């Protein structure tokens, strides 16, 4: 299993920075010693031993502070640790130089120890600062990922809840219609029961999906319309208008049914004549647009409003899916009510 990219990047930075420190430290110490008239051999030994020691201290620093995040009151611990590591590095460097360089060439060594300590302290402090800032960035990324995951789970739960509310909302209406038909039209009541069964079976298959194609959504909507046509008979007619290219477009699952249900409720409940509901689907500028139109009688007394679940559920779902509140628009043009739903194609 491959490691996360962040961990690979961190290891790369650790190795790269440690060996960059090694090379730069070697060059600087060697040039300073040669500038101070130290012989080439002692200067080379000194530079190599000091550079390797600082490289080891750099790795030790990264390892020690791998998961350390100091609070505002604990930054003094970093400086104390840097001082301790600097003292260790100077001690190790002095010990090995004494093993490889003759005593007559080491007059400068004790004199240079304070300067070595300061240089090593600054380098180690820089290494610690880089490591701490990296840990802080990692912590922020982890917290952001955890927050995003939590918000996604809440959003998915709410979307699921909205869809589950839609099923009993429609189911209760259909069952009431079946009850009303049992006495007067038992054959129609039986057909409607079979259609309702097919519709609910299709709904259950969609429970795990957030999006589907326009083609699948139209097929599912047709089952719903078959049930409604049993309820309203010849009074309900529907007309679909769309190009073939929109059938493969992406659309939220069961988003059309509440729109059409709203059109039926306001188009047929106060009207005795035949009612035509038109559904126009087209795609423009990577936006899938769905317009559903139904007539209404403006001079009829206002019907009982009900729960208002349909359009409000659509508005809420579009916000949860796309983070926008301007995707659903309704308007009245003379005696026609038009619902327009715009769906960005991701």
TrEMBL record:
The chain crosses the membrane at residues 12-32, 44-62, 74-97, 117-136. Keywords: Membrane, Transmembrane, Transmembrane helix. The keyword Transmembrane helix applies. Pfam families: His_kinase. InterPro entries: Bact_2-comp_sensor_kinase, HATPase_C_sf, Sig_transdc_His_kin_internal. One of its GO terms (molecular function) is phosphorelay sensor kinase activity. Residues 157-236 form the Signal transduction histidine kinase internal region domain. The keyword Transport does not apply. GO terms for cellular component: membrane. PANTHER family: SENSOR HISTIDINE KINASE YPDA. This is GHKL domain-containing protein. It comes from Sphingobacterium lactis. The lineage of its organism: Bacteria, Pseudomonadati, Bacteroidota, Sphingobacteriia, Sphingobacteriales.
């Amino acid at each position: 299993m491959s490691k996360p990219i962040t961990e690979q990047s961190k290891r790369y930075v650790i190795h790269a920075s440690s060996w960059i420190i090694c090379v730069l430290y070697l060059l600087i110490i060697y040039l300073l010693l040669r500038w101070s008239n130290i012989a080439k051999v002692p200067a080379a030994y000194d530079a190599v031993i000091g550079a390797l020691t600082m490289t080891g201290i750099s790795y030790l620093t990264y390892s020690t502070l791998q998961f350390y995040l100091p609070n505002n009151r604990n930054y003094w611990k970093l400086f104390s640790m840097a001082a301790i590591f600097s003292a260790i590095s100077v001690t190790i460097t002095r010990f090995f130089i004494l093993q490889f360089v003759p005593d007559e060439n080491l007059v400068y060594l004790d004199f240079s120890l304070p300067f070595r300590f300061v240089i090593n302290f600054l380098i180690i402090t820089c290494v610690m600062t880089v490591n701490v800032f990296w840990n802080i960035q990692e912590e922020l990324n982890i917290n952001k990922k955890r927050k995003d995951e939590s918000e996604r789970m809440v959003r998915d739960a709410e979307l699921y809840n909205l869809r589950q509310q839609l099923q009993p909302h429609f189911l209760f209406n259909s069952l009431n219609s079946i009850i009303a038909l049992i006495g007067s039209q038992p054959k129609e009541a039986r057909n409607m029961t079979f259609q309702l069964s097919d519709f609910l079976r299709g709904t259950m298959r969609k429970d795990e999906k957030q999006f589907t194609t326009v083609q699948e959504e139209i097929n599912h909507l047709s089952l719903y319309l078959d049930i409604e046509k049993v309820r309203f008979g010849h009074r309900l007619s529907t007309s679909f208008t769309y190009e073939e290219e929109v059938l493969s477009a992406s659309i939220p699952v069961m988003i059309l049914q509440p729109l059409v249900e709203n059109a039926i409720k306001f188009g047929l409940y106060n009207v005795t004549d035949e009612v035509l509901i038109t559904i126009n689907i087209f795609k423009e500028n990577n936006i899938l647009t769905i317009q559903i139109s139904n007539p209404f009688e403006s001079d009829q007394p206002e019907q009982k409003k009900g729960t208002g679940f349909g359009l409000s559920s659509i508005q809420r779902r579009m916000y949860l899916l796309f983070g926008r509140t301007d995707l659903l628009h309704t308007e009245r043009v003379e005696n026609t009510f038009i619902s327009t739903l715009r769906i960005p194609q991701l």
